[in-house]
Amino acid sequence: MCRLIGVVARHPAPVAELLGEDLEPFLELACEHKDGWGIGFRTETGLIGTVKATDRADDSTRLRQELRSWETDMAILHIRMASPRLAVSVGNTHPFGDEWAAFAHNGEIRPADVLDPLISPGLLKQAEGETDSERYYLAVREQIDQGATAAAAIASTAAAIRERAEAAISLNCLMLTPEGIFSYAEHDPDSEVIGRRGAGFFGLSYRREPDRTIVASQGWPQPAPRWQTLPEGRVAWFGRPDQGPEIY
Question: What is the DSSP letter of 98?
Fold first, then answer.
């Protein structure tokens, strides 16, 4: 399992500055989620850039340099806890995507190849690694390439996974596009992970301020009403810090 955080801001600034007081508590989660990190951010040209590595996030000099270097108004950050039998490699590290999207997932889908029939052969060949998470993204991307909106593509892919998978422990994701951050929260309340970790382990919450909005996995204090929990089974879009989220 993994941890996710995203930010949408009114004005561009280094990613570390945009995440502010939430950055260090988030990185401390790498004591357990230690199998790599990745950043997706909107560039000054309006496209999506990504950088990722396999070292432990809270000990990574490179990560801190990247967080200080990239100035943006939208970004997501992922720290990985590798699923059993999946290698710790750059190809398996989130986010996945290209200049139009960066996709990060927190959960597990079994078996991973259950999504392959939802992805065209040409797109499937572009996979960097072996993860269920990347296939989740490619299935979403397949829908977008066929004309679906990002929100509709995430929702329909989640429904297809529920129908086909033997287990969908969590479908939580953040997807950064040039238009904003899309989030989706859904987990299996009867999974063994919930039994071990507690009901809040797969929650996604957001905090809105005048100049920025943060959306994140749980794992450090996020008290209400400052933080609000996103509804399960719904796509949320964060496009401006002073609006939304829009729930689909």
Answer: E
CATH, residue 129: 3.60.20.10
Residue environment code for 213-225, b if the CB has 16+ CB neighbours within 10 A, otherwise e:
bbbbbbbeebeee
| Residue 29: half-sphere exposure toward Cβ, Cα within 13 Å | 24
pLDDT value at residue 194: 56
Residue 183 tokens, joined: 């989030």
Please provide the average confidence, as pLDDT, over all residues in the chain.
93
CA distance between the termini of the chain = 25
Q: How confident is the model at residue 199 (pLDDT cuts 50, 70, 90)?
A: low
For 130-187, the pLDDT digits (tens) are: 999 999 999 999 999 999 999 999 999 999 999 999 988 899 999 999 999 999 999 8
Helices (H) and strands (E) in the chain, counts: 7, 15
Q: Give the total number of structural domains in the chain.
A: 1
Closest CA to 106 of 136, 86, 126: 136
How many percent of the chain have pLDDT more than 70? 96
Torsion, Cα 120 98 67 225, to 10 degrees, reads: -60
Domain that holds residue 207: 3-247
Note the pTM of the prediction, 2 decimals: 0.96
Strand order in the sheet with 37-42: 48-53, 37-42, 71-79, 3-14, 212-217, 204-208, 228-229
